[in-house]
Amino acid sequence: MKLFDDLPRIAKLILQFFFGGIISGVYRIIKGATEGNVVVIVVGVLALVTGIGNVIFWIVDFVTLLLHDKFTVLV
After folding, report:
1. Where are the transmembrane segments (predicted)?
2. Per residue in 7-25, is it b (16+ CB within 10 Å) or e — as a string?
3. Which residues contact 55 (CB under 8 A, 6 or more apart)?
4. What is the pLDDT of residue 53?
5. CA nearest 24: which of 45, 52, 3?
């Protein structure tokens, strides 16, 4: 998680553009596990296994990375 957070903004945007569905889910699962937040873990799993969740989180995470340089929704 820290590795992704420390990347330059352009690198995060490129990774999110091509691998966003996977990155979003894994990021939420790891963040939820480190903070002990079950809701974030469940959201991360749902983002990984559902096609609709992937599309929604891909768009939301791309926009939040563009505007804030980090994931901000349900993290």
Report:
1. 13-30, 37-60
2. eeeeebbeebeeebbebbb
3. 21
4. 73
5. 45
Instruction: Please state, for a pLDDT cut of 90, what percent of the chain lies above it.
Output: 61
| Residue bearing tokens 């691998």 | 19
Structure tokens belonging to residue 20: 């966003």
The pLDDT, as a whole number, for residue 34 is: 94
The two structure tokens encoding residue 61: 């995470």
Q: How far apart are CA 5 and CA 10, in angstroms?
A: 12
Going by the DSSP 8-state scheme, the letter that residue 69 receives in this structure is S
Residue with tokens 């957070």: 5
Q: What residue segments make up the domains of the chain, in order of their start?
A: 21-70
Give the integer Cα–Cα distance in Å for 25 and 58. 10
